[in-house]
Design a protein that fits this description.
- The protein has ten helices and no strands.
- The chain starts with a helix and ends with a helix.
- InterPro entries: HD/PDEase_dom (IPR003607), HD_domain (IPR006674), HDIG_dom (IPR006675).
């Protein structure tokens, strides 16, 4: 895939997020930066991770928010308007345990049918790591602090609050697996 897909992803994300949702754009840039940092554990999928990180929240763009569930809206946009790579679309659709949130929203079957989970655990974990160790402003954080921030921002009784409480153990496990893979890399 190489740098071309990264440039394309940045162009799309900037066009959809930078003016309408500047804070989401800052988060997106931070997640993409984190992906570039950890991509060495993925070898040939490094550029795919960076592209997925860059596009993971594209579904928040106001013109794309059809269902109000950003992973599904973003994946449909990438598939339908851009004929994006299937693995990239699956990563965007399922990032950070989106299936659990889809369940809370009554959209589990839609998400699972249209965009099956990618059976590449380290790649999936790496995207979770990048998203869940980046603040809304694009800064580095811990997964524990990120989950606490999401709960605080949305409230525990909201759809997102219920989802993030359910997903937290899985998020923390993904982050630990990526940290272990990074630690095992030769220096």
């Amino acid at each position: 895939m190489g740098d071309q897909i990264g440039d394309w992803a940045t162009h799309i994300a900037r066009a959809e997020l930078s003016c309408t949702l500047p804070r989401r754009w800052a988060h997106t840039q931070g997640v993409a930066h984190r992906a570039a940092e950890v991509s060495q554990v993925l070898n040939q999928d490094a550029s795919l991770l960076v592209a997925a990180a860059t596009l993971h929240d594209i579904g928040y763009a106001p013109r794309l928010a059809v269902t109000g569930f950003h992973p599904l809206d973003g994946a449909r946009f990438l598939r339908d308007e851009h004929r994006a790579d299937e693995r990239l679309v699956q990563l965007v659709a399922n990032h950070s345990f989106a299936l659990l949130e889809a369940e809370e929203r009554g959209l589990r079957e839609d998400l699972a049918t249209e965009f099956p989970l990618l059976e590449e655990p380290l790649l999936v974990d790496a995207l979770v790591y990048c998203d869940m160790t980046t603040t809304p402003d694009g800064d580095r954080t811990t997964a524990q602090d990120r989950v606490a921030e999401i709960r605080s921002r949305y409230g525990d009784d909201s759809v997102v609050g219920r989802f993030i409480r359910r997903a937290a153990p899985e998020i923390f496990a993904s982050v630990e697996r990526v940290e272990a893979a990074l630690a095992a890399q030769p220096r």
